[in-house]
């Protein structure tokens, strides 16, 4: 017979590592498996999961007010961007929140580490069996049908009822992100030589091939070298897309021979990121982005931020990248990203968390630009749908979404994603412009989109037949992934002049862009549409529209509008 002491010891061993019982409430749920995925089966109980918990932030409404105060022309605080410490004072959770969540984790023998600069995210690893019990979940393996990639997710999970209002969400749980895809590279039948532009006339060749010279002619972008070395333009890199320095040199040699051939970019890495210089591993997207930031924003210091495949944030490194930048004392003044998701891929909680992180960086003076996507009204890429699919992060109101145009007399590129967020409500800065568009639209596509959602894109730029170099070959690419680095380059050049004049960078752009002065400094695009979901999509019209936004840049007018 066991002694009573031994029995107690055995019971203690059996209970070790089992979650302490609390009253649980369902926190997030999905009604069904997303159509792009298939359930493979239960996840192995001993498989380790890398999870994060997000704590409720201290005063996110206060941060939003501060962002708008420093970003709105005419505000007494305009241009007085916040410091890292000031931003963190808004988002660092209250001590009672930290204590409540960490106590719950410790009760369950979970050691968590800080996963964000302000401590609003904690990370830890536990086996599937423990995660299922801790969260009353059913973690399973799901396969992305087209790519065959697998991930472990659950369609629902619960948290302790007494942590409501303290614990924001657990992640990755109900998020189902599809693998990123990029533009296709097409080798033209005949390569045209670079055109030296000596007047305001746009060369006829620009109708079929877009080069830096075409953009200089179309938008009045100067070739004068930037002078302020602390003014940085950041370029996001994901999915092991490498920006090749030899290809950049070839690109500059033909298309920007006035720029020194040795001009290059610096590199930052996270999550095991790198930038392999094997010419055969050059990435279409990475080369496109770097060639058009270095090749258009003349002598503005460029930094390529390579996010590796070791990311464990459940959103392909997006959370890791923004936390990385928020942790820096001096992040880039402009950040351009040519990747994104369909908004339904992300739970509202995760989308809000990322959006609020972009708000933090914007409040510190960084202009954040994202390509709007290439599926018209059907999302990030063309796909079957019955209702319009907004893209993310473009639906976030604290960044600038960039659509695409085509042609010398610019018209909307038909792939340019645009529409209305189903998560984020319409911000006040765009209310008037969007209301005017919706009134003119009438009942067209009624019921296929949310009329009260944040509308995008905000602006646009050329996105079709854009010439790049890949593995020492010239060719053409299409996509809003061309447009975002082009518009970002314009902002970086304006920031250079502002810095040289002793003025702050532009920071969060939208309140300025939607102001009378900002709108008047853009070329309105009034033709074309973005079909999808068995419809003609949205038509471009005078003023703002959900295909080309407010229009394309006019550098001279923008320069005046920002006070130069």
UniProtKB/TrEMBL annotation:
Domain Peptidase S53: 209-564
Spans through the membrane: none
GO cellular component, one term: extracellular region
Enzyme superclass (EC): hydrolase
CC cofactor note: Binds 1 Ca(2+) ion per subunit.
One Pfam family recorded for the sequence: Peptidase_S8
Cofactor needs: Ca(2+)
Predominant localisation class: secreted
Protein keywords: Calcium, Glycoprotein, Hydrolase, Metal-binding, Protease, Secreted, Serine protease, Signal, Virulence, Zymogen
Classification via InterPro entries: Peptidase_S8/S53_dom, Peptidase_S8/S53_dom_sf, S53_propep, Sedolisin_dom, Tripeptidyl-peptidase_I
Active-site residues, record numbering mapped to chain: 285 (charge relay system), 289 (charge relay system), 481 (charge relay system)
Reaction equations catalysed: Release of an N-terminal tripeptide from a polypeptide
Functional note: Secreted tripeptidyl-peptidase which degrades proteins at acidic pHs and is involved in virulence.
Family annotation (PANTHER family): PROTEASE S8 TRIPEPTIDYL PEPTIDASE I CLN2, TRIPEPTIDYL-PEPTIDASE 1
Name this protein carries in UniProt: tripeptidyl-peptidase II
Naturally occurring in which organism (per UniProt): Polyporus arcularius HHB13444
């Amino acid at each position: 017979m066991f002694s009573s002491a031994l029995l107690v010891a055995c019971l203690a061993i059996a209970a070790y590592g089992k979650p302490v019982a609390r009253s649980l409430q369902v926190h997030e749920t999905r009604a069904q498996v997303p159509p792009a995925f298939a359930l493979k089966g239960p996840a192995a109980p001993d498989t380790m999961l890398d999870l994060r918990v997000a704590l409720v932030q201290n005063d996110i409404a206060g941060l939003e007010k501060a962002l708008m105060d420093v970003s709105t022309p005419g505000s007494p605080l305009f241009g007085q961007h916040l410091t890292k410490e000031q931003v963190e004072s808004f988002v660092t959770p209250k001590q009672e929140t930290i204590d409540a969540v960490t106590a719950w984790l410790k009760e369950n023998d979970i050691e968590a580490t800080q996963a964000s600069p302000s401590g609003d995210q904690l990370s830890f690893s536990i086996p599937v069996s423990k995660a299922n019990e801790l969260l009353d979940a059913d973690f399973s393996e799901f396969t992305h049908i087209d790519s065959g990639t697998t991930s472990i997710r659950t369609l629902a999970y619960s948290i302790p009822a007494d942590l409501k209002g303290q614990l924001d969400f657990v992640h990755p749980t109900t998020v189902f992100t599809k693998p990123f895809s990029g533009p296709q590279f097409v080798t033209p039948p005949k390569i045209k030589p670079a055109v030296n532009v000596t007047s305001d006339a746009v060369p006829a060749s620009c109708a079929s091939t877009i080069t830096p010279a075409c953009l200089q002619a179309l938008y009045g972008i100067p070739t004068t070298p930037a002078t302020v070395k602390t003014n940085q333009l950041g370029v996001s890199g994901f999915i092991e897309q490498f920006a090749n320095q030899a290809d950049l040199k070839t690109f500059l040699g033909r298309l920007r021979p006035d720029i020194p051939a040795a001009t290059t970019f610096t590199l930052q890495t996270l999550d095991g990121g790198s930038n392999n210089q094997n010419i055969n591993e050059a990435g279409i997207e990475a080369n496109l982005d770097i060639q058009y930031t270095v090749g258009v924003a003349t002598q503005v210091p460029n930094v390529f931020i390579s996010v590796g495949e070791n990311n464990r944030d459940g959103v392909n490194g997006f959370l890791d990248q923004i936390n990385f930048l928020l942790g820096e004392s001096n992040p880039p003044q402009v950040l351009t990203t040519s990747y994104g998701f369909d908004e339904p891929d992300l739970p509202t909680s995760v989308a809000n968390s990322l959006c609020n992180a972009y708000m933090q960086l914007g409040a510190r003076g960084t202009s954040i630009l994202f390509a709007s996507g290439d599926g018209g009204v059907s999302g990030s890429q063309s796909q079957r749908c019955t209702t319009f699919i907004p893209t993310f992060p473009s639906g976030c109101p604290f960044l600038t979404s960039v659509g695409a145009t085509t042609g010398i007399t610019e018209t909307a590129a038909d792939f340019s994603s645009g529409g209305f967020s189903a998560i984020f409500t319409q911000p006040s800065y765009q209310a008037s412009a969007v209301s005017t568009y919706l009134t003119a639209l009438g009942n067209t596509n009624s019921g296929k989109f949310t009329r009260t959602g944040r509308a995008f894109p905000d602006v646009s730029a050329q996105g079709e037949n854009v010439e790049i170099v890949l593995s020492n070959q010239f060719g053409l690419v299409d996509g809003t992934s061309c447009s975002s680095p082009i518009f970002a380059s314009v902002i970086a050049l304006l920031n250079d002049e502002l810095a040289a004049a002793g003025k702050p960078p532009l920071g969060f752009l939208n309140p300025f862009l939607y102001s009378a002065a900002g709108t008047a400094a853009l070329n309105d695009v009034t033709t074309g549409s973005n079909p999808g979901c068995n419809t003609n999509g949205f038509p471009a019209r005078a003023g703002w529209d959900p295909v080309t936004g407010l229009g394309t840049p006019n550098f001279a007018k923008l320069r005046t509008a920002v006070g130069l």
